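Suppose you are handed only these lines of text.
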Amino acid sequence: MTDPILSVRDLSIAYRTGRKESVTAVSGVDLDLYEGQSLALVGESGCGKTTLGLGLLRLLPGLGEITSGSLTYRLKDGSRADLLKMKKEQLRRFRWSEAAMVFQGAMNAFNPVIRIVDHFADTLRDHSDGKRWTKAAVEARAGELLETVRLDPDRVLQSYPHELSGGMKQRALIALAIALDPQVLVLDEPTTALDLLTQRSIVQQLHELRKKFGFTMVFITHDLGLAAELADRVATMYAGRVIETGSARDIFYGPRHPYTAGLINAVMPVKGERPVLESIPGYPPSLKAMPDGCAFNPRCAFATDECKRDRVNLELLTDRPLAMHHSVACLHHDRVRLQRTAPEQLASVAESENANA
Ligand code: SF4
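From them, the structure of the protein bound to iron/sulfur cluster can be written out as follows.
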């Protein structure tokens, strides 16, 4: 593999909570993403995964700000650019043509008083670099993209968002996000609030689109089953930090952080015996009162005094190429084991990885 398409170094993001106060929602994140990879950011609500996803495109809401670090992209022309140093005009051209986002909640992501075709017109005209988009060109491009996601342009283009079902809106949002052929696509909870059948067809659609367009994907999810279906790599987040990262097989078959293992142990198998599930005791810490040392220590069965002293950093567990490494931030990772083999829905990708190996 060549250089990463996206390198995140020591990225921290805070939200202002008062005139001179703020809370850190993402702290010291390092990530590398290579061309064509699909990375799942997983963790409980409030762990910082959506904030990190928004930060990757500098799309944080008003009170959020990136307080340190760098976000370096390899652009389509092969040059490298730090997103944090881009001026407003550069950012406008970067977004949607180099990296795009599918926001959480298909129901609310469209402006309700604008027809679908006009959402395409706005995106194509605002984010293209100098190309003139006539009405006919917009309709042709939008129609082509809608057909790609198996929507009927005649039915959808002139519709208002409320005239589409949740699944149709999600497909239209994905079509809109890839309108300018971005290299990186960030999706926030792409199947949440959709019924099971629609979830299945969106997952299938994403597989097909990746194959066809070859984009690199980051998706944010609390659903480990979805991560297993779509991800080559998984990064677990806890209290604003990445605490484990590895291939889907590393994470679902051999997690080395007690929190990742706890998340997997809490997944009910879809077939066979229904085991008694063990939940992770306690709650994630408040961002305003983080424990000293490893933030997971109040909930961790393996915690020792050492865990309560210093921040625990990610440590490489493998000597594979960096694109495929397994890393963990745990002082006692050699003691961590799953209670049982991964449930079937988590084993699917790991098995297909085996088949492809
Ligand atoms: S560093 Fe210590 S407290 Fe943190 S997860 Fe590992 S064993 Fe548990």
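What can we learn from it? The chain has two domains: 6-231, 237-356. Residues 350-357 have pLDDT under 50 and may be disordered.
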